[in-house]
Design goal:
Layout lengths: L4 H10 L3 E4 L9 H12 L2 E4 L9 E4 L5 H7 L7 H10 L6 E2 L8 E4 L22 E2 L2 E6 L6 E5 L2 E5 L2 E3 L7 H11 L4 E7 L3 H8 L8 H9 L4 E4 L6 E3 L4 E7 L5 E3 L13 E3 L1 E9 L4 E3 L10 H17 L7 E6 L9 E7 L5 H9 L9 E5 L8 H11 L2 H4 E8 L8 E2 L16 E10 L8 H5 L15 H4 L1
Parallel strand pairs: 1-2, 3-18, 4-12, 20-21, 21-24
Antiparallel strand pairs: 2-3, 5-17, 6-9, 7-8, 7-11, 9-10, 10-17, 11-14, 12-13, 14-17, 15-16, 19-20, 22-24, 23-24
Bound molecules: flavin mononucleotide and manganese (II) ion.
């Protein structure tokens, strides 16, 4: 059986990472808050069995709420995840196979039969004025020049029975491809895929090159070809074992108000103008499980799902700096929000290496990070206290801190300067601003390993006597 959302729920149950709730929960009023507490207070995903107004539906939330959970879904663990994921991807991407049918076709609703209102789409944040947004939408489009499909996670605002907004980041692949259709005066076919195994979600947030179909990355992550099935009304192929697929088109040159929506930084950018999707069909499983991916305030699913592929991609880059170097982990702390900080755990071998690694960490396909911090092998980059201790005790600002001005930033990082609107190719207005900012590099390592051990040793931590040997329970029970 191919891996899907259901096989993953079984894994979460086995590892005691899932809370099942049978009391009635309202997707418009309290689903988000309950799911947020389950993750932030207990580190667990939530499966809702009883949804107000949607008697036949179940919904899952926070299934991608931490690196730990996604790692067990990929049959590895939190610590080994980055090396394991990169080994799988570097072994070679795996092309999908086309099948003639699949569970996502159990129900096919075309034209007037299709109704977004039958799906239990939830309200995410206090900023959103009670409007439901689909957060778990993997958008599949096809480059008209190459015929290569692109998969990208982009939210949808519900605007009517068969109308949604789509939030398209400037200059990302969906935007570049959409403008090719618009230049020809054509609508862009688009398939919105909801609910599948985390390997699909990690693939869809993986920032690869334009001519890479992210579904091949999912194949590599799973180490088996993904099964795809043809859409009913548009010329696209979609995962056969997804829960729900919405088939539609983005009409040319139409921009409408979108938002407000709580962003990954933990606040809302207010209203911007964005393209829309006109829905042509909905196909789904008979007993489809809705994936209520929660966005916004940390820790939502925005941060870990941004982080895991970003950490993998950056790890793959920094481990080759200067030929090869000793990288132990790469972490974009989810509690910080926005994925603007990247921490590299490493043992620098020679002078200058940590700085080069920090520059490389900020120069990947990802625009999010603006602060890079190098910590040594004895500092856990997942632990905020250890990070602060390291910065406080191992950094001389005049020689260990650098700022690189006027660099590309993330378009949703409101602390950075907005560039003026530009008019894109074919006279199409850009609907969002690009931002220019700066980068901060902090070297909090103990110094190169080729230095005499006594020089690095100055920074070695000391521990209370007996600390490593004792267990408190042995003395209190
Ligand atoms: C939870 C989550 C929500 C996201 N929502 C959006 C979005 O609404 N619009 C967008 O452009 N990117 C969004 N992203 C980022 C894109 O998914 C990511 O940049 C992806 O790599 C873009 O695909 P591309 O490399 O094919 O351009 C989101 C990421 C996450 C983790
Ligand atoms: Mn892409």
């Amino acid at each position: 059986m191919p891996e899907d959302l259901r096989s993953y729920l079984e894994v979460l149950k086995k590892y005691d990472k899932l809370i099942e709730i049978s009391k009635e929960v309202d997707p418009l009023k309290n689903l988000a808050g309950i799911a947020y507490r389950a993750e932030n207070e207990q580190g667990k995903a939530t499966l809702f069995h009883n949804l107000k107004g949607y008697p036949k539906w179940k919904a899952v939330s926070y299934m991608c709420g931490s690196r730990e959970k996604m790692a067990i879904g990929l049959k590895t663990d939190k610590r080994k995840a980055l090396t394991e994921v990169n080994e799988r991807v570097n072994r070679g991407l795996i092309k999908p196979k086309i099948v003639s049918d699949g569970p996502v076709k159990e129900i096919v609703l075309k034209g007037e039969e299709a109704d977004l209102g039958e799906i239990p789409v939830h309200v995410h944040s206090s900023s959103d004025r009670g409007v439901p947004f689909i957060g778990s939408s993997m958008q599949i489009v096809k480059d008209p020049d190459t015929g290569i499909q692109n998969v990208s996670l982009q939210r949808n605002q519900i605007k009517g029975k068969r109308k949604m907004g789509i939030c398209v980041g400037p200059q990302r692949h969906t935007d570049i491809i959409m403008r090719k259709y618009w230049k020809m005066g054509k609508a862009m076919p688009i398939a919105t895929v909801i609910g599948h195994h985390p390997a699909y979600y990690i693939g869809s947030t993986w920032s690869a090159y334009l001519d890479i179909d992210e579904i091949d990355i999912t194949g590599a992550l799973l180490q088996e070809p993904v099964e795809l099935v043809r859409c009913e009304t548009i010329d696209l192929n979609v995962p056969a074992c997804a829960e729900i697929v919405i088939e539609g088109e983005v009409p040319a040159n139409i921009l409408e108000d979108e938002g407000p929506f709580g962003e990954h930084a933990g606040w809302s950018m207010g209203i911007t103008t964005q393209p829309i999707i006109n829905v042509k069909a909905i196909t789904r499983r008979k007993d489809a499980i809705y994936y209520a991916l929660q966005g916004a305030r940390p820790i939502s699913e925005s941060q870990p799902l941004d982080a895991f592929p970003m950490e993998s991609v950056i790890y793959n880059i920094v481990k080759n700096v200067g030929g090869t170097c000793d990288i132990r982990d790469v972490v974009t702390p989810t509690f910080a929000g926005g994925s603007h900080i990247v921490v590299v755990q490493m043992v620098p071998q020679i002078e200058g290496e940590a700085r080069s690694v920090l520059m490389a960490a900020l120069t990947s396909p990802y625009r999010h990070p603006k602060v890079a911090i190098a910590v040594d092998e004895d500092v856990d980059p997942h632990d905020a206290k250890a990070l602060w201790w390291s910065i406080s005790t191992r950094v001389d600002p005049k020689k260990d801190v650098f700022i690189i001005p006027d660099t590309l930033g993330h378009p949703n990082d409101s602390s950075l300067e907005k560039l003026p609107e530009y008019v894109g190719e074919g006279g199409v207005e850009c609907h969002q601003h690009l931002r220019i900012g700066s980068k901060l590099l902090i070297d909090a390592t103990k110094g190169p390993s080729r230095w005499p051990a006594t020089m690095r040793g100055v920074f070695d931590p000391v521990f209370p006597v007996g600390y490593k040997e004792v267990k408190l329970e042995d003395f209190t029970g």
